[in-house]
Amino acid sequence: MTFERFSLKFLLLWLLLIVNCSLSLLTLTMRQRSCTYLDDDYPIEAPIDHLDWVAMTMFEGTHFQLNASDHVSDKEWRTIYSGPYTLHLGSEKRIFLIALYHETHCLRAMEYVFLHPESSAYTPQHIQHCLNYLRQHFLCVADDQLEEDDFLHWDLRTGSVYVDDKLCRGWDRVSTAASDDLRRFRDLRGRVQLNNLI
């Protein structure tokens, strides 16, 4: 009887292992499936090598101030939206916007309108789109990391205040992939133009 129980447990363990391996292979195959990038035939995420998880120390402080006369803060805000912002994918080199850059564009647009309400650089519809886009993004991410609820007591005039460490996806690979893609696209476009001249 003990041998039968052992055999049954052993058989069940092997069966679960086989099912797990099969599901892993199926998931991997689905991720690697070839897309045409035409119409709706494209993956959910950009074809970028695995994004590492990185620890990011969060600070509240004197950077990224909302102050129109502060040139340092203006420069900081401009750096969060520095491109390239797109990928050219598939045989037709279809252009896709990278969500990370769409999000930072929206932050920059709202910061700009907050400081320059008289400007016509962004329409109210554009800002409404950005607010809605970021709202949906925050709901989609559903970040459940716990944070201390004492930010109203911080004196930010004295400098940066440590908030917490967060676990984030390493955005550096997204930036590298977009830069590499732009360089390849420009090289290809240059070769096509050169071939048309010959």
From TrEMBL:
Q: Pathway it belongs to?
A: Mycotoxin biosynthesis
Kindly indicate whether the keyword Heme belongs to this entry: no
Pfam families xrefs: UstYa (PF11807)
Q: Which InterPro entries does this one have?
A: UstYa-like
State the family named in the UniProt similarity comment for this chain.
Answer: Belongs to the ustYa family.
* Keywords linked to the UniProt accession: Signal
Q: Which residues form the signal peptide?
A: 1-24
This protein is called: Uncharacterized protein
Q: Name one GO biological process term.
A: mycotoxin biosynthetic process
